Structures are given as C-alpha cells and as structure tokens.
Amino acid sequence: MADDLQTITGHRGLVMEEPLIFEQDAPGRTAVDLPEPPDVADRLGSAVREGPIGLPGLSEPQVIRHYLRLSQKNFSIDAGMYPLGSCTMKHNPRINEKLARLPGLAGIHPLQPQSTVQGAFELMAVTAEWLTTLTGMAGVAMSPAAGAHGELTGLMTIRAALEAAGNARKRVLVPESAHGTNPASAHMCGYSVESIPADERGRVDLAAFKENLTDDVAAIMITNPNTCGLFENEIIQIAEAAHAVGAYVYCDGANFNAIVGRVRPGDLGIDCMHLNLHKTFSTPHGGGGPGAGPVVLSEALMPFAPLPYVIREGEGFRLVEHAEDGDGAPYGRMKGFHGQFGVFVRALAYMMSMGADGLRQASSDAVLNANYLLARLSDLLTLPFPGPCMHEVLFDDHFLHGTGVTTLDFAKAMIDEGFHPMTMYFPLVVHGALLMEPTETESKETLDQFIMTIRSLAERARDGEVDHFKQAPRLTPWRRLDETTAARSPVLRWRPDLPQAAE
Amino acid sequence: MADVKYTEEHEWIEMDGDIGTVGISDFAQEQLGDVVFVEVPDVGKKFTKGEEAAVVESVKAASEVYAPVDGEIVEANTDLVDEPERVNADARGEGWFFKIQLKDETQLDDLMDEEAYLAYVADL
Questions:
Q1: What would the mean pLDDT of B36-49 be, rounded to a whole number?
Q2: A320 assigned to some structural domain
Q3: Do residues A110 and A188 both lie within one domain?
Q4: Where do the domains of chain B lie?
Q5: pTM, two decimal places
Q6: CB of B90 within 8 Å of any CB in chain A?
Q7: What is the enclosing helix (H) or strand (E) of B100?
Q8: Shared domain check, A191 and A249
Q9: How far is the C-alpha of A68 from the C-alpha of A284, rounded, in Å?
C-alpha cells in the first residue's frame, strides 16, 4: 500500500509536511527592509515594551509556502463533495465574489456619512425585500451575524413582545427534531427548555406538544424541514395551537434551502425565522467566511425588531440607529454597525442572478438529489423513517450492527475515498445517525461516484473488513486523531518550551 | 445488595438511608463513548424530579443528567471534573455524579429495578 511508503522529507508527493510557523522562526529574518528610525526621545513611559513580542521571523516566500501548504491539506467545497447534513455546503457562484469586490461596495466604511452610502442602504433594502417576499413575512432584522445569533435575536424579539403585553412567560418548547442550537438560544434568553418527542414518523408528536402547551409557554422553536430531513406537515396545526394560548412560533430556517419558492413560512403561521444567508443563499462559510442570519418577522413582532434598520424616505434611504428615530419599540442592538454587509452583497447577487424561477429550481434540485441518494442507498443502509425526504437524507447505524464498524469508522473511511464525511451522530433521535445533504450543485456524475463509494464501504463492513475501517483514514496527512485525549487535555497554544507533538 | 433503581433517561440511584447516590448507567456510558467533560451541581442546590442536575459530554454528544427524584444535593463528585474517564471506567461506582437527600421516598416506586431496566435497554 502507498500509505506505507516513508520519505526522507516527510513530504508525500504533492502534500508537504509543514511545521508550525513559529517553529520556522529565524530571528531577524524579515520580508521588509525599513530604514533605521530617527533618534527621538521615548515617550511611552511605563507602556514601553519590555521584551520581544514573539512574532516569528520569516521571508516572504516562506510565508507564502507555509499558508499554501496548509491550504492544500484542507478539504473545501471547491475541492470535493462535502455532504454535511444541515450545513448546506454548496458551490458559491463566483459572480457573488466579483460583485462583492466592486470598490464601491468593498471599500466603504461603516462610519461614512449616510449621504455617501445611499447605494449600500438600497442594497440592504432590496435584499430585505427579496427575503420578506420569499418568506411571506412582514419585515426582517438584517443585523444578526449567523444562524444561532439569529435564533437569539428572534427569541429576544418574542420576549420583548411578550413583555410589552405584560408577561414574558417561562417556557420554550423545543422538539427533538429541531436543531441543536435551539435549546441553547432559549436558555440564553432566560427561558426553561422543554423537549417535545418525535413521533414514529420522525416529526413533532402533535399530541405531546399540545399536552405541554400551557399559557406560560413563550414560544415553540421548530425546524422545518426538520433535522431528520422531513417536512413537518402538521406545522399549521402546531402554529394554530401555539397562537391559541398566546405563544409565538419560531422557525429555525437553516433548512429553508429545501423549500425556497415552494412554501412561504408566513403562510404556515410562523412568527419569526432566521435565514442562513451563508447556506441557502450561497456565501462561503465554515472557515471560508462569515455567516449572516437575518431574522424575518411577522406583523405582530415587527415593532420590536432590533436596531439598526434601513427605511425608505422620499427619494433615498435612512438608517434608523436610535429608538426615537423610528416608529417601533426596539429592545436594542444585536451587533456592532449594520450586519454582515459583504454577505448581503453576495446573497443579493445570488438571488438576482438566479431569479425567482432559478431559486425555485435550486430548492427542487436539492430535494431531488437527496431523494436520489435515498433511492440508491436505502437497500444497503437503513432508513429510520420512510421517505421521500427533503433536501437531506437520514440513515441510522442498524446496517452496521454486528459488523464491529461504527458510524465514526465509516465516516473516517470516506475521507480516504476523497469525500468529506456526512454529519454523524446527529440528530440524536436515531441511533448512530448518518445525515447526508448532497445539495443541488453536485452533478449526477459526482453523486454516482459518492453512491458507489458508500455502497462499496457498506459491503466491506458487512463482509467483515473491520481493519479497513478501524485504521482509516490512512491516506491523509495525519491519520486518525485521538479525539478523547484532544478533548480531555487540549493543548491550545504553542509555546517554545512545549515538547514536540508525538508522531 | 443495596436498593438500586433506574430511570428511563439512564440514571441510577442507590439508596443509603434517605440519601441517594446518582450516576449514569453502564449502558449510557457505553452509548456516549469516551466522556471528556462533566459538570456536577453545587451542594445545597434543590431539584425537582426530571430537572437537569448535571452535564456529561463525550466525543459524540453532550447530554444532561436529570434528577431522578425531588431533593437537595448533599455531596457532588467533583473528582469527575478532572477525571471524567471515571464515568467510563466505573459508571456504577467511582463514576457517581452526586448524592441527593430525598424529599419523598415514594418517588422511588416510579423507577425501574435493575431487571426491568436491563429489559428496557435490551429493546433500545
């Protein structure tokens, strides 16, 4: 096997062995040559630096090679299929990047006078209109920085509305089929969290929900399509029941990419939903860029939307940054400045280049691709809930029972085959979950190669090739890591006196 | 043999007088995999049955440990904070989480005995 070949350098063909940048320090080496500073009196006083600051000395080509070599060891959506369920790793069209780099958009400063950035305000207003039109909602708070931040914003908006009505209430109901960040957001907002079980169809157990629904419930946080990749088809009954006791319906919109152009959440009775612009509307994320989690709001919640927001005024636009400058009763601000403006640019470029028909086609293709995986894999893998599914397909580990191979081993073996593993062990409602989201941007050829790989691995597991799995990954720059020691005694910072990492 | 009872959420409680020692079952530690973090409650804290009393995190997942009965914490196993691996090594012994003074011992009647619990997990 090629993985047994040892090289003198530690390099493996095109994959270079690379020490930490601090380990390459050559004191005095630098990429710039500055003139000696003039001899002036030191006025720093007690703030004067006492020792070196510890930056490594390297030449420019060393720095370039260092980061390029690291990037070559990284897996990215630009390199291969990344079927991470619920994270929607899809292609980011390059036109988004081209537009985000226009100097008039990339070079503006958040403290510029409002009269000089009217175009940026218009871009935010038009992005907001696309989002409210697609979701059928009254308005949108644009500033949240990511999905979970959007959840917190939504919950705080609900809390503000309830407080204005005289009672903030105590509890938030979170179904087991919802996203893992939901309970944390509710807890951070001061609510006690109660879990609602899933029924045998993998959806919210409506009877259990109604049983727990009393007038001290502030909201239900539902994910639709849920994290089993299934549409919550009783959502309207759930929303009606919640509204009947004065509770609000929060929807986690991380899976909105399955229903864009097909379903408007506003029509389902949803009061509040965050949109992961970095998932559904294709902007780089997961180490590749920041997220953005605007929160669409119903008529009832709009007056409580956080600052700041852009309003049309006469021929132009105005940024409302203080409560007294607008009509609403905002509870404050969720983020410095105006939100992830660069992500708004990319998301709007995506929406306008796709058009309404293209967005609808994209969500349909995402669902089609997931169902293609379901159809081609469900004879060998095991489905906890019958299909069809939405944009992602959930398998459990029953097909591995008795083989000695776990979901984790299976995922590691996928890495050797050049695929990023799917989401594992989540959602918790099924045993040893494998959650796959192919997205609409993978071609049939790639999906067929992926299917062939998964089928072959499932057969090898069934045929007792346990060693193949336990040793995986074997072809990566680093082989299987000791996750337990990494978590129990993490070494988070390099220091010169630390022993070298063990091989 | 002391009287041990189990909950459907995989906690065990072993009684000594009116004090119950609480931990997670061997089945639970095996399902969780290597435990890497444990948070135990403060002494004096009061819980009602079913409330989250402690946290256990493994390489796979984070979960809560629920109070199996109403009561007040009289001792917590703070050794677990530095040595969470004890939960894997000896879930029913050294890996205990906390001791709770029971408010109402009749609540134990709602829990499963060992035989019933083993039958319960065999079905999972």
A1: 96
A2: yes
A3: yes
A4: 4-118
A5: 0.90
A6: no
A7: strand B98-102
A8: yes
A9: 19
How far does CA B28 lie from the centroid of its chain? 10
Subunit contact A484:B59, Cβ cutoff 8 A? yes
- What's the token pair of residue A146? 């990511």
What average pLDDT does range A396-405 have in this prediction?
96
Q: Considering A351, A373, A408, which residue would you say is the last residue of a domain?
A: A351
Chain A positions in Cβ-Cβ contact with residue B85 (cut-off 8 Å): 488
8 A C-beta contact, residue A125 and residue A317: yes
The Cα–Cα gap between A501 and A29 comes to 25
Per-residue pLDDT, averaged over A11-35, amounts to: 90
Report chain B's mean pLDDT, rounded to a whole number. Answer: 93
Picking from B36, B59, B61, the nearest residue to A428 by CB comes out as B61
Of B60, B61, B84, the CB nearest to A488: B84
Closest A-chain CA to B38: A488
Same domain as A424, residue A276: no
Contact status of B8 with chain A (Cβ, < 8 Å): no
Q: Which two tokens stand for residue B63?
A: 């979960």
Q: Which domain holds residue A20?
A: 12-25+58-73
Please name every residue paired with B71 in a beta bridge, in sequence order, or none if there are none.
B47, B102
CATH of the domain at A273: 3.40.640.10
For residue A187, count CB atoms less than 10 angstroms from its CB and return exposed for 0-12, middle for 13-18, buried for 19 or more. middle
Is A114 inside a domain boundary?
yes
Pairwise CB contact (< 8 Å): B34 & A426: no
Do the chains contact at A425 and B61, CB–CB below 8 Å? yes
Is residue B37 less than 8 Å (CB to CB) from chain A? Answer: yes
Number of domains into which chain A is organized: 3
CA A109 from chain centre, in angstroms, equals 26
Q: How far is CA A453 from the centre of its chain?
A: 26
Tell me if A400 is assigned to some domain: yes
As its CATH architecture, domain B4-118 has: Beta Barrel (2.40)
Are the beta carbons of B88 and B57 closer than 8 angstroms? no
Mark whether A455 and A404 lie in a shared domain. yes
CB contact under 8 A, A487 and B61: no
Q: Which residue has the higher pLDDT, A503 or A397?
A: A397
| pLDDT tens digits along A57-89 | 999 999 999 999 999 888 999 999 999 998 899
Q: Does one domain contain both A215 and A335?
A: yes
Of A293, A320, A351, which residue constitutes the final position of a domain? A351
Give the type of residue at B92. Answer: R
A324 with A387, same domain? no
Checking ipTM against 0.90, whether it exceeds it is no
